[in-house]
Structures are given as structure tokens and as C-alpha cells.
Amino acid sequence: MLLSAREDQLDSTLALGRVAAHLGDLRRAGRSEPEPPPVAALVCDDVAATERLLTLGVPVVHLRSGPAGEAPPESALVRVHRPGWLPLPGPPARGARPTGVLAPRRTGRSPTRSGTLVLLSLWHVPEAEAGAFASGALRELAAAALRRTGSCTVVADTGLARVRSALAEHPGVRVLRAAEADPDALHADAAVFLASPVLGALALAQTRRAPLVLLPPLGSVQRALAGEVGEVLPLPTADDPDDPGLWSPAAAAGPWHLLDPAADDLRGAQRVARTLRQLALAPL
Questions:
Q1: Which CATH number applies to 116-261: 3.40.50.920, 3.40.50.2000, 3.30.750.24, 3.40.50.300?
Q2: Which of 90, 172, 210, 211 would give a disulfide with 249, using CB separation of 3.0 to 4.6 Å?
Q3: What does each of the 284 residues of the chain score in pLDDT, given as a tens digit?
Q4: What are phi and psi of 120, to 5 degrees?
Q5: CATH architecture, domain 2-103+266-281
Q6: pTM for the whole structure
Q7: CA separation (Å) from 264 to 83, 194, 274?
Q8: Beta 77-81 vs 60-65: how paired, if at all?
Q9: What is the DSSP letter of 16?
């Protein structure tokens, strides 16, 4: 089975990792097309990869994260990463099914968690806006995280050189590439969680009933999602690094109790994995 994601998009890599965790002992071929072709494939957001695999006769589950972009071929099984509590901004594409929450397989957190985890998405963010954020607000937040929590790990999907340059004066900050890290495991060990407004970060905090502070939304995609989430959940935002409330989240786990439990069963990743298993065992 081939598993592929857009490595420059945080939601795409988070979705791939969560579905892969439920595939058990199925042999996986990695990111590139093997020889002979795989019996099935999961492709997250990469329409070109889906088209290539379908041309080879490989059945594909195409998992789309975020807003509608380039439509995948109709012969793919399309799933749309979207929690049930967050209404779709418009009618779904023909044949596309919402997944619900793509929850991490491990739902517990370390009792001795410490430090700060920052999940940063610069995908689809204009260069000037990304640069201003990295050299301004991100630098101030990282410095405050070191002072308040002792350590800070920044996981970013793209723009790593820019982020590392902006944070170079803070050698205690780790900067990791999302496609090469395990953000879900890092979150289990972190005391404070700051994240860009992306679906994967929301699912992570919701599943674990953990506090989440949203970074300022960057780019039109994040601003649209932040607006939609704000209509449902009163999540705090990281507007002031000196606000002590950002760094002492133990008093409140977050507003997750406000969500209707009937809207989502948190098994979205399992359902996508089940579809992949069915394709692998009985291809269309």
C-alpha cells in the first residue's frame, strides 16, 4: 500500500500519520510509486499523485484537508477532512464524504508533561506575511515560552529556513519539520499547546480534551477556518506573549465540553483506514 501526503501542508501530514496508525500490519510502500504498483493507495491532498496512481490502475482514497482546491479525479474515493461539529462552508463536492474528526490513536498525555509545543503552518501563506510573523510574533512567543515553561519546540510544515533564522537568537528552541516529526507524540509530552488554526491541531486538542491557544491566523485559508471555528468555540488566541494565562493552562482543559458529543465519534481515521483495507483486500 502506498501512502502519500503533501509534506508542505501540516494538515496533510497530520492526516496521513493518523490514518497510517490504524493500518496495522499492511505492508506500506512509502511515498514514491513502487514496482510493481501497490494494491491500493492513500493520497492526502496531492491531486497529481492521485492522477498518476489512477493511471496505473491503482485504487486511491484521496483525503482532502481544508478548503476545496483542485478537484481529484472522480474515479478516486474522496474523503474530506472535516469534524462533524464544524459545518461545511458550502455543499460538498460530488461523491466526497466528510471524515469527521481524525483523532490520534494515542489519546493519553504524560503526567509529567512540560514545555511548549508550537504547531506552525505556513502553507499557502504569502511570503511577506510569513516573514513578518516569524521575525515578530513567533520570536516573541518562543522567548516567552522559554521563560515560562522552560522549553519550546516549533514544528512547521514549510518555511523552515525562515523560522530557524528568526529563532536563531533563542538556541533553546527546537525547530522540526512536520513531515519528519511526530506532532501527536510531542503534544502528549507538552504542557502548553499553541497552534495555527488548522483542522489537525483542533482534532488533537479535542480528542485529548487539552487546552489549545490559537496562533494568529496567517493567509486566507487560516483566516477563513478561524472565523468558522470562532462561531462554535471560544478558543483563546496568542495575541499577547506576556499574558500569564497562555502559560498556565492547567486550570481549564478548554471549551470542548461545549461540543455536541453526537456530532462526532472521533473515529474518522479508523474509517478511512477501513476503506483502505477493503481496497487492498478486494480492489475495485
A1: 3.40.50.2000
A2: 211
A3: 899 999 999 999 999 999 999 997 665 555 555 567 789 999 999 999 999 999 999 999 999 987 666 788 889 999 999 899 997 766 666 678 889 999 999 999 999 999 999 999 999 999 999 999 999 999 999 999 999 999 999 999 999 999 999 999 999 999 999 999 999 999 999 999 999 999 999 999 999 999 999 999 999 999 999 999 999 999 999 999 999 988 986 555 679 989 988 888 899 999 999 999 988 886 55
A4: -115, 125
A5: 3-Layer(aba) Sandwich (3.40)
A6: 0.93
A7: 7, 23, 17
A8: parallel
A9: H
**Rounded Cα distance, 204 and 108, in Å:** 11
- Whether 12 and 45 have beta carbons less than 8 Å apart is answered as yes
Q: Specify the long-range contacts of residues 126-131, CB closer than 8 Å, at least 24 apart.
A: 126/219, 129/218, 129/219, 130/159, 130/162, 130/218, 131/162
Query: Are 2-103+266-281 and 116-261 the same fold in CATH?
Result: yes
| Segment (H or E) for 162 | helix 160-166
Return the domain boundaries, the chain: 2-103+266-281, 116-261
CA–CA gap between residue 11 and residue 133 (Å, rounded) = 20
Residues β-bridged to residue 80 = 64, 98
Nearest of 73, 88, 10 to residue 41 by alpha carbon: 73
Closest to 213 measured CA to CA, from 189, 185, 188, 243 = 243
Burial class (CB in 10 A: 0-12, 13-18, 19+), 90: exposed
Element at 199 (helix H, strand E): helix 199-208
CA atoms of 216 and 204, how far apart (whole Å): 18
Cβ neighbour number for residue 147 with a 10 Å cutoff: 12
The grid cell for 189 is 509530552
